[in-house]
Amino acid sequence: MTTNQITTTEQDESMILYPHQLFFLNPFYLNDKTPQGLKDWMTLVVESVNNPSSPNINLQRPIIQKAAKLIDDDGLTPQERVSILDERDYNNMLRKERADAFQQGKLEIARNLLAKELDLTFIAETTGLSIAELESLT
Q1: How is the chain split into domains, by residue range?
Q2: Alpha-carbon distance 40 to 45, whole Å?
């Protein structure tokens, strides 16, 4: 798919400002129409994760050799490499840990306030916990 941003010059001529081509890349759906350079890079990515000890890559291209050496030199285990590539899971895990820690903090504060025999409505307003959650702590 090709898109163009067209403008008009002072001489009233059309001129393409930004020719763009949109490519959808998926390393698992390579075919004969995939340009060789792109195929080499996508294969390198997949092989560095799935087969890091003996990747099946095109080492005839110096840039692929250099990239493969950099991957070898990073010192990461295959598991670490996969976890870095799936950064969304890592960020989701961090958000969940923070939310869990925040919830635990609210529960601890609520227990302390309950121990001082303060009013349940006041504790609920202060901690953001429901009355039912507070009653389950007693």
Answers
A1: 88-138
A2: 9
Beta pairing, strands 6-8 & 14-16 = antiparallel
Supply φ then ψ for residue 65, to 5 degrees: -60, -45
Calpha distance 122→124 (Å, rounded): 5
Query: Does residue 6 sit in helix, strand or coil?
Result: strand
**What does each C-alpha distance from 93 to 68, 75, 96 come to in angstroms?**
30, 24, 5
To which residue do tokens 């003996």 refer?
54
The model scores a pTM over 0.70: no
Q: Do the beta carbons of residue 104 and residue 133 sit within 8 Å? A: no
Cα 12 to its chain centre, rounded Å, is 46
Using only C-alpha atoms, the chain has a radius of gyration, in whole angstroms, of 28
User: 6 vs 10, 17, 23, 59, 102, CA distance in Å?
Assistant: 13, 6, 21, 42, 52
Q: What is the mean pLDDT of the chain?
A: 83
